[in-house]
Amino acid sequence: MNIRGSICALATPFTADGALDLDAFGRLLDHQLVGGTQALVVAGSTGEAHMLEHDEFDRLLAFALERVAGRVPVIAGTGEAGTAKTVALTRRAKALGADAALVVTPYYVRPTQEGLRRHFLEVAEHGGLPVLLYNVPTRTGCDLLPSTVAALREHPAIVGIKEARGDRERITALAELVREDFVYLSGDDGSAGAAMLAGAAGTVSVVANLVPQAFRALCDAAVAGDRVATARCHAALEPLLQALNCAPNPIAVKAGLPLLGLGLALPRLPLVELNDGPDRARLHQALSSLASLATAAG
Prior knowledge:
298 residues; 12 helices; alpha/beta; 8-stranded parallel β-barrel; 8 strands
């Protein structure tokens, strides 16, 4: 299993009455595959995992696996606040056929580093899937430190980390932990180029939902160590990246879906749709500009 390069953290489209929109989800999956995305995350935070019912998680993951049909790895978001629940959800993802589990640090409960170490070891031992650690302190209230990651990578089922902290110190520390059986993936679109130039094997991206081809170009350039091409790709993406910062994820990225025929802009409560106004106009303009560049390049 090769989890690297351009990886999309998929949004979950919903219908106007709040149900899963599997037709739109299918179009989104096809959009990713045509655009060159190299792996997919289903039911992560961008996919509003914590708003999904158990049967919806099953339907969404099963649908993605059938649609993708082994062309790229499909990674299931299985992180919960409790260890037993995380193990159970990881087992369910395995039963459905997922290739790996993306396991976020337990949120809200603020475990110690020892608690985090034991949590991830339990999931690795009993979940049945290769585990990608996921650290995103701004959302969870705890920070998985590089020293703890270094200890966890010794378990054969723990195959990498998605690190959403994009500061230079953390990028450097995680890059030093890379080895053949343990990958470092950026989890921050804004610093993705810098992380991959430093040694990250790829990026789990939000913006790739909308512009998979452009994000694949950034990943290809950065993983190859081409700083000039990386800077050029990042500059092209920067207006859209800035536009997506106008609201908590995935509110803004979902506002871009209707423009591409990939579903409605509706998240589930407590998230609300991005209002009409300057933020939405800026997002639309940035997307239109990237589409024009892609047409000209083609």
